């Protein structure tokens, strides 16, 4: 039996030697943005912000605090890091998006033009099929649950040039914001290769109302290829059959 187990161990260790690396510092547990590039009003916070991190002790926070004079409320300077948010055009360049891509996406979900915002991004590589998962919490002072809001802010992600929405129905928040979604998760299947993930939050239409996005627990996990699973199953069957024949002979 011991020899059988040793053979089985050798066989199983010879298949599935694929791996997925990064993202680096996906939980922001360094207390900063090591491994990430940032633009605009971004900071790493702990539970003193009013919301516990999804995991660990830290989480990333980005806001759309005014980067331009706020004609609606000149005293409403809302930044956490001391750095103002940036224009939609600057965000598009930061995320490697075509000009007007954020505006086009905003209009595709029946919102106005993108005014300003902030974001973070990181590139990583996997040599196997994998699943990217990240956790997020969208916070806002917008009347997002009202029937006909004139303008809405939204959170979003950019994966390899494709934009996805990170905004859903909200509930009252215990932070400086009125409402939040609470932590939710997004998972996306990745093919082998190089990838870039971006996360951000923007104002649409005007800078008069602020919103933010919390992000935590960014990770990827390998997905065994069907061929690998098939080879493993076939090998186990062959070894078991061989073992049975040997036992019958004795």
Care to describe what's here?
- By secondary structure, the protein is α+β, with helices and mostly antiparallel strands.
- It has one domain (22-225): Sandwich (Jelly Rolls).
- It is 20% helix and 34% strand.
- The protein contains four helices and 13 strands.
- The protein has helices at residues 2-13, 88-94, 101-108, 226-249; strands at residues 37-39, 41-45, 59-63, 86-87, 114-126, 130-140, 154-159, 162-165, 171-172, 179-180, 184-190, 193-204, 211-222.
- The strands form two sheets. Strands 2, 3, 6, 9, 10, 11 and 13 form a seven-stranded antiparallel β-sheet that branches.
- Strand 7 (154-159) and strand 8 form a beta hairpin.
- The chain is globular, with a radius of gyration of 24 Å.
- Mean pLDDT is 82; it is low at 2-16, 69-74 and 228-232.
Q: Please tell me the overall pLDDT.
A: 82
Query: Which CATH architecture?
Result: Sandwich
The fold-level CATH name is Jelly Rolls
- In DSSP terms, counting alpha (H) and pi (I) runs of 4 or more, how many helices? 4
Tell me the number of structural domains: 1
CATH superfamily: Galactose-binding domain-like
Largest sheet: 7 strands, antiparallel
Estimated share of beta-strand residues: 25-35%
Which CATH class? Answer: Mainly Beta
According to DSSP, the number of beta strands is 13
Q: What is the terminal-to-terminal distance? A: 13 Å
Helical/strand content category: alpha+beta
Radius of gyration: 24 Å
User: What is the N-to-C order of secondary-structure elements (H for helix, E for strand)?
Assistant: HEEEEHHEEEEEEEEEH
Helix content: 10-25%
Q: Would you identify the regions where 5 or more consecutive residues have pLDDT less than 50?
A: 2-16, 69-74, 228-232
Could you say which overall geometry the principal axes of the C-alpha atoms support? globular
């Amino acid at each position: 039996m011991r020899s059988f187990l040793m053979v089985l161990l050798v066989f199983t260790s010879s298949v599935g030697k694929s791996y997925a690396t990064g993202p680096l510092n996906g939980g922001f547990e360094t207390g900063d943005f090591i491994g990430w590039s940032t633009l605009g009003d971004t900071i790493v916070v702990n539970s003193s912000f009013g919301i516990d991190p999804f995991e660990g002790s830290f989480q990333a926070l980005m806001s759309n605090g005014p980067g331009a004079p706020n004609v609606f409320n000149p005293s409403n300077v809302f930044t956490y890091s001391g750095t103002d948010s940036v224009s939609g055009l600057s965000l598009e360049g930061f995320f490697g998006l075509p000009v007007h891509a954020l505006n086009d996406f905003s209009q595709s979900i029946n919102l106005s033009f993108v005014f300003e915002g902030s974001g973070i991004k990181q590139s990583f590589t996997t040599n196997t099929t994998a699943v990217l998962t990240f956790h997020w919490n969208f916070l806002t002072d917008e009347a997002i649950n009202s029937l006909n809001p004139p303008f809405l802010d939204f959170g979003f992600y950019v994966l390899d040039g494709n934009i996805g929405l990170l905004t859903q129905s909200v509930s009252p928040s215990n932070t400086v914001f009125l409402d939040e979604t609470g932590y939710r998760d997004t998972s996306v299947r990745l093919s082998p290769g190089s990838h870039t993930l971006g996360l951000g939050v923007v104002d649409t239409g005007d800078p008069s109302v602020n919103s933010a996005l919390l992000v935590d627990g960014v990770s990827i996990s390998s997905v065994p290829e069907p061929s690998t699973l098939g080879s493993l199953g076939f090998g186990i069957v062959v070894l078991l059959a061989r073992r049975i024949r040997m036992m019958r002979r004795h």
